Amino acid sequence: MSGKNKVVASGEVKCIVQIMEVRDKFRLIDGFRLLCLSIAVVFFMIGGVNAAEFTVYVGRVAPFTMVAHNGEVTGAAVDLMVNVMQMAGRPIDRSQVKNISWARAVYEVEHTPDSMVFCMARTPQREDKYKWVGPIAELNLGLLGKKEPRIEITNNSEVAAYRIGVVRNSGPMQILEDVYEIPHSKLTLLPSDTAQFKMLAQGRVDLITQADTAAPDWLAKLNMDQSDYEMVHVMKKLQLYAAFNKETDDAFINKAQAALDAIKADCGAKKKPCALQKYLKDGPIPLQQPR
After folding, report:
1. I want to staple 143 with a disulfide (CB 3.0 to 4.6 A). Which of 68, 162, 192, 233 is the partner?
2. 115 pLDDT higher than 60
3. How far is CA 74 from CA 63, 65, 206, in A?
């Protein structure tokens, strides 16, 4: 091979080597970019899971759920569910807890993923609409009325004779319709507990549905004299639950139920009053006594 050809060959080799080096660099760069992209996707996915927060609604059932003057939602059930959600891996902040009309809260949780509401009565009509954790509270649900003029109810068939105010789409409404067989059209449907008590005070209804534990708090907040009212008739002993949107993952529901069961077992084993005694300072509204 002539000297000229050797030079050409040597130049070609150098050129090929340089091309291969550049190719390898691009491969390294592409690999690094792919690695970075993969890491970013993983962090995005993890962040997405952690960032998904529940929208939390409550029904006002003192002392389990109460609303302070500044709008903060407190109560024994709130304290309990904050602990349950923390233990189940989906913590909630008290600032997430919203107090809106019960009818709207029920609608929102039924139709909106990552939402929950408590305290809700678990009725046959609602069973398949939500996923459930509980019970988180127990109470007597009954008909509240004025002591004077006195209303006496000795059997279920007598209930239909009175004008009854009840919150629309509530558990008590379903009990009145299904158990007491009172037509929907005969009930006075109201948007809130506040409206119930005002209607009762004004004499526009004879009775309202209310929990024995919640009535004293409502009467105090509305400046109504508790001594003027009594529980005329107990309709049902209720267990209240946390209700989650139907799309909530079953694995999470199981974790939340296990957390609740563990808290209850711990309270029972240590004979602690747990959250309830912190808020239940006064006793429930008294049941009507025979004359």
Report:
1. 233
2. yes
3. 9, 6, 31
User: Can you say how many angstroms the Cα of residue 178 is from the centroid of all Cα atoms in its chain?
Assistant: 25
Rounded Cα distance, 73 and 58, in Å: 8
pTM for this one?
0.62
| 3-class SS of residue 215 | helix
- Is 192:101 a contact under the CB 8 Å cutoff? yes
Q: Print burial letters for 220-251: b (CB count within 10 Å at least 16), e (below 16).
A: ebeebeeeebbbbbebeebebbbbbbeebeee
- Note the pLDDT tens digit of each residue in 65-111: 888 778 788 888 999 999 999 999 999 988 889 988 888 999 999 99
- Please determine, for residue 223, whether its predicted confidence score (pLDDT) is greater than 60: yes
Decide if pLDDT at 231 tops 80: yes
Through-space distance between the first and last CA atoms of the chain, rounded to whole angstroms? 130
Tell me the one-letter amino acid at 179: V
Residue with tokens 């209720």: 238
- Name 115's Cβ contacts closer than 8 Å, sequence gap at least 6: 54, 55, 56, 57, 108, 109, 244, 245
Q: Choose the weakest-confidence range: 47-51, 90-94, 102-106, 188-192.
A: 47-51
Pick from 208, 182, 211, 184: nearest CA to 196:
208
Q: DSSP states of 137-168 as a string?
A: EEEEEEEEEESSS-----SGGGGGGS-EEEET
Judging by DSSP bridges, how do beta strands 188-190 and 73-74 pair with one another? unpaired
Residue 283 has pLDDT above 90, yes or no: no
Candidates 74, 56, 83; CA nearest to 217 is 74
Residue 105 near residue 117 (C-beta atoms within 8 A): yes
Q: How far is 158 from 85, CA to CA, in rounded Å?
A: 43
Amino acid identity of 226? Q
